[in-house]
Amino acid sequence: MVETRVAQKISQISGVGLVTLSGGQRPAVRVKLNAQAIAALGLTSETVRTAITGANVNSAKGSLDGPSRAVTLSANDQMQSAEEYRQLIIAYQNGAPIRLGDVATVEQGAENSWLGAWANKEQAIVMNVQRQPGANIISTADSIRQMLPQLTESLPKSVKVTVLSDRTTNIRASVDDTQFELMMAIALVVMIIYLFLRNIPATIIPGVAVPLSLIGTFAVMVFLDFSINNLTLMALTIATGFVVDDAIVVIENISRYIEKGEKPLAAALKGAGEIGFTIISLTFSLIAVLIPLLFMGDIVGRLFREFAITLAVAILISAVVSLTLTPMMCARMLSQESLRKQNRFSRASGKKCSTG
Question: 2-50+74-153 belongs to which CATH class?
């Protein structure tokens, strides 16, 4: 029942590769021959085996022939219970039938009495579901859980379906922790930028560059069919620092020209153009460091390939954002007045530093 109703339907779910059953004890009839009784009757174990095999052969019982079709009649006359086997005639002696129960002990049992499974102190059948290579384990597990209520309704009420183990629980927790660390890294980066730049517009600019670079990286990940896992999230967390570096360097250089009296638009063009080659060379230098990871073999290479590509894409997009969006925002949001204006916290921290 479990094999035909449950296992077959689960194996048809997208992402499921292999479904195996263990612990299920198939019903069987066990025959224990009495050697003394067989010898006394002049029989052999081969005679008994041949009789049992011959009694369980399915063969056609006849046929119906018509003008346009012929139908073969078959019947399942295999013996199912221990009592039927006890009455099986295995030989004749002096015209009297010798039955299997006369020379053997026939009992109802299990096909493999050494194999069994228990769950919550109750005998059970364990079904192990494995995903296909490359399939998303979380989406596959979600699809299986969605089908479980439907499968449970098709089974007798005495049968209980329980999830004993789910690997996605730890995977989900690990991914959630990594996502929290990514959000925390972005928040800390913005806070530190504000503490050092002491200017709200100058803080907003790199604060906008970070999510835009990460969103662009996510788009490339979708195009390359990368999954969101611990390694890709770790790459995005590391890339947060590189994204901010490019934006801060551009902002500082543009701010320097604005403080000298240049107009914001001219300062943005001049400042970004002055360090554009430096940003590009730094970007390709960082990407070059990641190239060896692409050529690593075995399972390690497959694991770190997504990590290296994700980090390289994030660094490349951050360079594009820092040379395009960042100068534009500087020209719109920065001015001599905004750079000179400090809030209370900035003045208080400045006085404290000068006193120290």
Answer: alpha beta
- Cβ neighbors of 40 (< 8 A, separation 6 or more) are none
Please state at what angle helix 168-197 crosses helix 137-153, rounded to 10 degrees.
Answer: 140
Which run of H or of E encompasses 179? helix 168-197
pLDDT digits (tens, 9 = 90+) for 265-310: 888 888 888 888 988 998 899 889 888 888 887 777 777 888 889 8
The H-assigned helical ranges of 99-229 are 100-103, 137-153, 168-197, 200-223
Q: Domain spans of the chain?
A: 2-50+74-153, 170-355
Q: Give the pLDDT confidence of 64-98 residue by residue, as tens digits.
A: 777 778 777 666 667 777 888 888 888 888 888 88
H or E stretch covering 51: helix 45-55
Q: How many CB atoms lie within 10 A of CB 270?
A: 16
Alpha carbon distance 308, 318 (integer Å): 15
- Burial class of residue 305 (count of CB atoms within 10 Å of its CB; 0-12, 13-18, 19+): middle
Task: Indicate the pTM of the whole model.
Answer: 0.58
Distance CA 18, CA 16 (A): 6
Residues in the chain, how many? 356
Look up residue 147 and give its two tokens.
């089908």
